[in-house]
Amino acid sequence: MAARRAASSLLSRGLIARPSAASSTGDSAILGAGSARGFLPGALHRFSAAPAAAATAAATEEPIQPPVDVKYTKLLINGNFVDAASGKTFATVDPRTGDVIARVAEGDAEDVNRAVAAARRAFDEGPWPRMTAYERCRVLLRFADLIEQHADEIAALETWDGGKTLEQTTGTEVPMVARYMRYYGGWADKIHGLVVPADGPHHVQVLHEPIGVAGQIIPWNFPLLMFAWKVGPALACGNAVVLKTAEQTPLSALFVASLLHEAGLPDGVLNVVSGFGPTAGATLSSHMGVDKLAFTGSTGTGKIVLELAARSNLKPVTLELGGKSPFIVMDDADVDQAVELAHRALFFNQGQCCCAGSRTFVHERVYDEFVEKARARALQRVVGDPFRTGVEQGPQIDGEQFKKILQYVKSGVDSGATLVAGGDRAGSRGFYIQPTVFADVEDEMKIAQEEIFGPVQSILKFRFAALEFPRIPCDRDRLSTGIYTNTLRAMCSTVEEVVRRANATPYGLAAGVFTQRLDAANTLARALRVGTVWVNTYDVFDAAVPFGGYKMSGVGREKGVYSLRNYLQTKAVVTPIKDAAWL
């Protein structure tokens, strides 16, 4: 138990140990356009023979039968699993093979209306907002216990439906869901208002009240975690919820929703509708009976959700959207450590992560070494059936995403970036893609501008801008030999170039900084226009740490105390005081 709790603070923990990039060997690789980087003279191959054979074998082995049965495929409305009003269903697909796992009830406008009506009754007339906060706390804590009791089933469903490695879902994601629910359960009886002084004889209370019916739309890349991020704070505050799952990954949310009712959640407080964006999602976003909306997904869809919410009842909206996060490697970096961290920052979850470190900025002094070792690390990455032990990377979510990623790879080649690893599908079945690395990437290239959402690392070069100081020559050759002190090194250079380039994007979700210099870390952390800066680490998602973006990466914050504010209304109550002993 203690090990699971420790793992829950890092999304990148719980994964298998990885070989050191420094010990990697193998022929260098280039495919298509782009200049050779000088690894080896002449024509080069994409993969060295051994890594290519291992990766291909892993991706072409017969899939393992998942150790779990699909129990819940219907809509959850008012405490019951029911068919869609239309009777329609849709297929949820195993990304390892493209085969159908199960057919799931396809909710549309009528089903959303039923779910919102159930949530409204539960909030306006039911016991949930009227029970003591401690009782709500106990329900959420029991739910966390049930998640741990059913951890193997939940993890297997998440791996089967979404293509994540079983080691990731078992060792990291499911324990994190339990941790988040305990965190929000702990908050339930600690939400309180204030008594504030007035300028006259008045007693002023500030109350924090549940907002009402919350509509929530979660994505396919982290369905379990997003369930916890959204449902946890909403319930802790005493609200009712209508949750729409992503059509690609509906199974795990339905399963854990059943456990919430087993934990004692009253009927109608949580309703789950599986369906598609243009029907179920649009209806929920524009519904006049929904008091609050939360959405995680692409920036383009987020704009539509925000517009629908505004055009209906002007409901407040929390948005967690796309990103193109910079990962900055300074000239003083331990290159082996930086390569491994940058690798995890990008390739984690098959690269399907909104905050993936998808623009790797590397200082020119260590650039060539970094590229060679990043290439070697990518060639070592094991791609295959996510149920197999030792596999680091499973398939992409579906055929649409698979094709989109390969189109971005082609764009990178066509624009002149150097493809040093990967660039093609892995195996011949399912939606597997080789870990791909581009060098010589320029800021204006499509692969450096747009969110790829796949296992494609783009490595860009940056340099320091020299400052002119009287009587202090700025000799970079002498700096590199250590003749000057670290203080003079800092005086003779600035990080203005990399800050400007890192911020030159419509996104602002996250960033990584890898340096041994505290001054550089502090400067970058404050200069980068993003919601999260990880210094010498990446993908730390502790329950108490807020998460959200600047600019077109979203509106508002999730997790921590900040997420509670999304689901509370603030009310001032003012009453006169006569013959007050004190004011």
TrEMBL record:
<dbReference type="InterPro" id="IPR016163">
    <property type="entry name" value="Ald_DH_C"/>
</dbReference>
<dbReference type="InterPro" id="IPR016160">
    <property type="entry name" value="Ald_DH_CS_CYS"/>
</dbReference>
<dbReference type="GO" id="GO:0004029">
    <property type="term" value="F:aldehyde dehydrogenase (NAD+) activity"/>
</dbReference>
<protein>
    <recommendedName>
        <fullName>Aldehyde dehydrogenase domain-containing protein</fullName>
    </recommendedName>
</protein>
<dbReference type="GO" id="GO:0005739">
    <property type="term" value="C:mitochondrion"/>
</dbReference>
<feature type="domain" description="Aldehyde dehydrogenase">
    <location>
        <begin position="81"/>
        <end position="463"/>
    </location>
</feature>
<dbReference type="Pfam" id="PF00171">
    <property type="entry name" value="Aldedh"/>
</dbReference>
<dbReference type="InterPro" id="IPR015590">
    <property type="entry name" value="Aldehyde_DH_dom"/>
</dbReference>
<comment type="similarity">
    <text>Belongs to the aldehyde dehydrogenase family.</text>
</comment>
<dbReference type="InterPro" id="IPR016161">
    <property type="entry name" value="Ald_DH/histidinol_DH"/>
</dbReference>
<dbReference type="InterPro" id="IPR029510">
    <property type="entry name" value="Ald_DH_CS_GLU"/>
</dbReference>
<dbReference type="GO" id="GO:0019752">
    <property type="term" value="P:carboxylic acid metabolic process"/>
</dbReference>
<feature type="active site">
    <location>
        <position position="320"/>
    </location>
</feature>
<keyword id="KW-0560">Oxidoreductase</keyword>
<dbReference type="InterPro" id="IPR016162">
    <property type="entry name" value="Ald_DH_N"/>
</dbReference>
<feature type="domain" description="Aldehyde dehydrogenase">
    <location>
        <begin position="492"/>
        <end position="573"/>
    </location>
</feature>
<keyword id="KW-0520">NAD</keyword>
